Amino acid sequence: MSPPPHGPEVSRGHSEVDRGGGVYLMDVSPQPVSSSPPSQPAALPPPPPTRSPCPSGYTSWYSSCYRLVEEAASWEKARAACRDQGGDLASIDMSYDQAFVAGAVLQGRADAWIGLRREEDGSYGWSDGWPVFFTQWGPGEPSTVAGEGCVSMHAAARFHGTWNDTGCEQAKAYICKITSDKPPPTPSPGDGKCLPFWVPYGRHCYAVYDGQQGYSWPDARHFCQSLRTDLASVHSRAEQEFLRTLNYTANHHVWIGLTRDRNCECAPDPRRVKGHRHLTH
Hints:
alpha+beta, Mannose-Binding Protein A, Chain A, 2 domains, 8-stranded mixed sheet, about 15% helix, disordered N terminus
């Protein structure tokens, strides 16, 4: 960085930041040097505003933005309000997101709508189109009682943020979520073809899914099963080499389907989960 030019007789200056990130002294109204005190100190420019990756009122959590709205509304009205802000009712993809959202709801002290609801076929789906590969139902839930098709998160501490299906017309607080992430493609099983971004090998299709948060082994398997697949199993040296090549560009550890015991939780230390990826086939 070359220094800025200075006049021949400079008495005072103030600190400025140049485009390259350096700090230098910039001339301000050059005047002859004088021993008399200035009548008024030079004013510093206001600091640049701090930009948040999220809209006002939202809190950033990994690649998404969340907001707890305490003004009660029905599930449909809550969703419409979230969509008006460029998002949707919150979908929860894994245990870490669940813990974050539950913390906000517990502080709000009022049950809050999330984006899950029962579909016509009786299954549950997220309103933003994400597959359901994580749930946190409360005891005896979902109860599937007639008229109870929308899902809220408990605010009472004794329920630990678990989920409850209830009447969609009830007025509740709600969680909005804005994200740039796109739902993963769902492969069609058994048709002999692979969807875009899935790689064929033998009679199977494989993909490396790269979550920014990383996944624990159980969450990774839930994700794969939501796509009607499973974590990859390896049955030959050739298949091992294929998977190694497939993961070469990812340059990270990935989960496969091998476990010590089917009854084992197999969840590693959460502090070491970040950065783990998983293969599915």
